Amino acid sequence: VTLNAMVLAGLVIALGLIIDDVVVDVEHIVRRLRQNHHEAHPKSTERVILEASAEMRGVLFFATLVTLLAILPVFFMYGTAGAVFQPLALSYVLAVLAALVVALTVTPVLSLFLLSNGHLEGRESPLLSSLQRGYERLLTSTVQSPGLVYVTAVVLVIGALAILPALRQKPMLPTFRESYLTVQLKGAPATSQGEMNRIVSRMSSELRGIPGVINVGANVGRAVLGDQVVGINSAELWVSIDPDANYDGTVAAVEETVYGYPGMGRVVQTYIQETLSPSKISTSDPYTVRVYGEDNKVLVSEAQKVEQVLAGISGVVDSHALLPIEEPTLEIKVDLAAAQQYGVRPGDVRRAAATLLSGLNVGSLFEEQKVFDVVVWGAPETRQNISDIRNLLIDTPGGGQVRLGDVAEVSVASSPAVIQREAISPYIDIGFDIRGRDVAVVLSDINKAMLSYAFPLEYHAEIQR
Predict the structure, then answer these.
(1) Distance between alpha carbon 356 and the CA centroid of its chain, in Å?
(2) For the whole model, what pTM was predicted?
(3) What residues does 428 pair with on adjacent strands?
(4) For tag attachment on the chain, is the N or C end more exposed, with fewer CB atoms within 10 Å?
(5) How many CA within 13 A on the CB side of residue 167?
């Protein structure tokens, strides 16, 4: 739908130029026919139309070229803005080129059929004559004294460069008055589900009390088959706004309420803004080198080394590794010697710990066409802290039990909150830009550097384009 809308928008924008090409060409042909009519030895109508069309050919070509150059920068936009506006620019260019072809081919033929025997004389509007005389005087003075034109051009260029930083801060996409808002919350890594539920419940209650808000829904974490790569420390709220309410005031009140919760990442936006915004886990850098590997610690180390290699290549600027956000995670490493002493197999230790801490699905319960998972899990009071977890009892083959802390090392370690994968292989991106040198030459140098770099076994890097 968005693509079709932008294509139609490009055609609408080009409509003025399409009409102008025909009008200018026909108007010039009519003027030449009138002049020829008053000549002592008039030429044939076919020759007059042909000569008039030939006179306009260069004018129309260069005028079209100027309009196409004005929209050329759109084709170099990237990210969401490029994906949205490039179809508009493409349809605009095709429409303008088609109008040029019609003006140079079809218009002279139709002029020959319609103007050969037509009445060409007419009374010109006094206003039009006055405007024409004023334009001619201004054009004459400008051509004779071009200094003012040069000064104006320099002032306009300086003004454009001055406002360029402000334009970069403005969103490229328009904001629509949608009746639904999405509120995205992100707590600190390892924030518990109970704490997120408490915050979301309290925020939902406050939002429902805002005049103009009809209803509020919420979701904490991610569904089992959900498409969002988020942890339990993330939440999303959906706020419905009454169509008859003061839209700006209601949105401002929602933002004030949401931003009144410190210590969390908070984003309030409409559904279209959320849909068209860049992915949270992807880079918006112009160029990217992707490093692949299995072990996260080695992968982070290699990504940092590759970042340094890129920084040393001439033409590469703003290189930075997009390292994953880490959060504290419970880590259990089996002590093989201790496990052997108690007669416990390492796999049994891992399965027992996983069952007690994460739960084990052992079946399903069917009731009134609904399916409920049956999960075996440790009691909450037995897994409140590290000491409790170390005291969890593991069954031994002889019928006895042994503490988890006696056969395994239990600790809290940092691990990535989200592991990004491509074709099941984890990766880390290094984003960068290219300035001061030819892009193809710089990318060739980067490719040579990656081929000569000594990666560990089963680790490699690729340039993403």
Answers:
(1) 42
(2) 0.55
(3) 291
(4) N
(5) 6
